[in-house]
C-alpha cells in the first residue's frame, strides 16, 4: 500500500508556519526585552533587531562569522525521500540567504511511530543527507521525538564574511530586484495534497539549492536579500522594505511562475497559509487593479523558494526595483 504522507499533516511545508501577523506580535515581545547574555562569547551581528533575517549571525573574528539556523515542517509531498530532500534544501537556504556557506547540520525529526513505519523515516533522513552532502555540508546525528504529525528539517551552522553578508535591512534605492526561483510551489503542493497529482517541476525547484544564486549575488556586490518561503513573495518583500526603510516595486508580469501554478490557483487550490499571507500584507501593498488570483500567487506560501535580492544577478530575472520610501512599503505594477 502506498502511504500518502501529506494526509498525515494538517498543513504542508512552509504553509504550516505561524501566520506572519501572529509571529510579528510574538517576536515583538522578545524584541522589547533588553536583557543581554552574561559575558557573551561572541558578538551578535544579526538577530531580532534586523527585522527578521533568515538566520542569526555571530562574529568569530574580523573576517569570519558563524551563521546558525533551524527549519522544519510537515510533509509537502507524499514521497518520503523527496520530502527529506526538500526539507534539507529549505533549511540550507537560510544560510545561503545570508550569503554564507553551510558547514554542518543535524537532523530534526518528529515521527508518528505507531502509524507510520520507521522505514519511511529512514527514507526521509536519506533524502536530507543526500542534499546536504551535495551542498558540501556535513550531517551527523540530531534529535527525534514521537509526534502524531510527522515533521522533518535540520539545524544548520555555516560561515559568512561579515563584510559581504546578505541581510534584510540593507536594500538601497536604485537597486534592481532579482528573484532566483519561480513561484507556485504552494498552489501545486495544495493540489498534490488534494488530488495526489505529482508535479516534477515543483519538486525539482524545491530540491534545488540556492548555493549558486547566493555566490553570484555576493560576487555581484549585493548586500540585501532573503529567501522566499512561507510568507510568500509579498510577505518577504514587505519585511525587507520595512527593515530597510524603502519601498519595493514589483512588476507582476516579470515574476516567473511554475507552468501549472496559475491553473491551480484559478481552480482554487490555495492554502490557508497563502490566504492568511494576503490578508496580512494587503494593507501594506498598493495593488492597483491587479486581479485577485494574481494577488494570491504573489502571496503564495512557498516551500524552499528562491532568493529575493536587492541587486541584479546574472542569469536570473529582474522583477522590480527598490525605491525611496513612499506611502506603501510594497507597490505591485501590473
UniProtKB/TrEMBL annotation:
The record marks 17 as: Important for catalytic activity. Its EC number is 2.7.9.3. Mg(2+) binds at residues 54, 94, 227. Its cofactor is Mg(2+). It is an enzyme of class 2 (transferase). Coiled coil: none annotated. Binds 1 Mg(2+) ion per monomer. The keyword Transmembrane helix does not apply. It catalyses: hydrogenselenide + ATP + H2O = selenophosphate + AMP + phosphate + 2 H(+). Pfam families: AIRS, AIRS_C. It comes from the Bacteria. GO terms for molecular function: ATP binding; magnesium ion binding; selenide, water dikinase activity. One of its GO terms (cellular component) is cytoplasm. GO terms for biological process: selenocysteine biosynthetic process. The active site is at 14. ATP binds at residues 17, 51-53, 71, 94, 142-144. Keywords: ATP-binding, Kinase, Magnesium, Metal-binding, Nucleotide-binding, Selenium, Transferase. Residues 172-261 form the PurM-like C-terminal domain. Residues 52-160 form the PurM-like N-terminal domain. HAMAP family: SelD. Belongs to the selenophosphate synthase 1 family. Class I subfamily. Homodimer. Synthesizes selenophosphate from selenide and ATP. This is Selenide, water dikinase.
Amino acid at each position: 500500500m502506498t502511504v500518502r504522507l501529506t494526509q498525515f499533516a494538517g498543513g504542508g511545508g512552509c504553509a504550516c508556519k505561524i501566520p506572519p501577523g501572529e509571529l510579528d506580535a510574538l517576536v515583538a515581545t522578545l524584541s522589547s526585552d533588553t536583557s543581554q547574555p552574561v559575558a557573551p562569547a561572541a558578538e551578535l551581528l544579526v538577530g531580532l533587531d534586523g527585522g527578521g533575517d533568515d538566520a542569526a549571525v555571530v562574529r568569530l573574528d574580523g573576517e569570519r562569522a558563524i551563521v546558525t539556523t533551524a527549519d522544519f515542517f510537515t510533509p509537502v509531498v507524499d514521497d518520503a525521500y523527496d520530502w527529506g530532500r526538500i526539507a534539507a534544501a529549505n533549511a540550507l537556504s537560510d544560510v545561503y540567504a545570508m550569503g554564507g556557506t553551510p558547514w554542518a547540520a543535524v537532523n530534526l525529526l518528529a515521527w508518528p511511530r505507531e502509524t507510520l513505519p520507521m522505514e519511511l523515516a529512514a527514507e526521509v533522513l536519506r533524502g536530507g543527507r543526500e542534499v546536504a552532502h551535495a551542498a558540501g555540508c556535513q550531517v551527523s546525528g540530531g534529535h527525534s521525538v514521537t509526534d502524531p504529525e510527522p515533521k522533518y528539517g535540520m539545524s544548520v551552522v555555516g560561515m559568512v564574511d561579515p563584510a559581504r553578508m546578505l541581510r534584510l535591512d540593507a536594500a538601497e534605492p536604485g537597486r534592481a530586484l532579482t528573484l532566483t526561483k519561480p513561484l507556485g510551489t504552494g498552489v501545486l503542493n495544495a493540489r498534490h495534497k488534494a488530488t495526489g497529482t505529482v508535479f516534477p517541476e515543483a519538486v525539482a525547484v524545491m530540491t534545488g539549492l540556492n548555493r549558486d544564486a547566493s555566490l553570484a549575488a555576493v560576487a555581484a556586490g549585493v548586500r540585501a536579500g532573503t529567501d522566499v518561503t512561507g510568507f510568500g513573495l509579498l510577505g518577504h518583500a514587505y519585511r525587507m522594505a520595512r527593515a530597510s526603510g524603502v519601498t519595493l516595486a514589483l512588476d507582476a508580469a516579470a515574476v516567473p511562475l511554475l507552468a501549472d501554478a496559475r491553473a491551480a490557483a484559478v481552480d482554487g487550490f490555495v492554502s490557508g497559509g497563502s490566504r492568511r499571507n494576503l490578508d496580512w500584507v494587503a494593507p501594506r501593498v498598493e495593488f492597483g487593479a491587479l486581479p485577485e488570483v494574481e494577488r494570491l500567487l504573489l502571496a503564495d506560501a512557498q516551500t524552499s523558494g528562491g532568493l529575493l535580492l536587492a541587486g541584479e544577478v546574472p542569469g536570473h530575472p529582474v522583477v522590480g526595483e527598490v525605491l525611496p520610501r513612499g506611502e506603501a512599503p510594497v507597490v505591485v505594477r501590473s
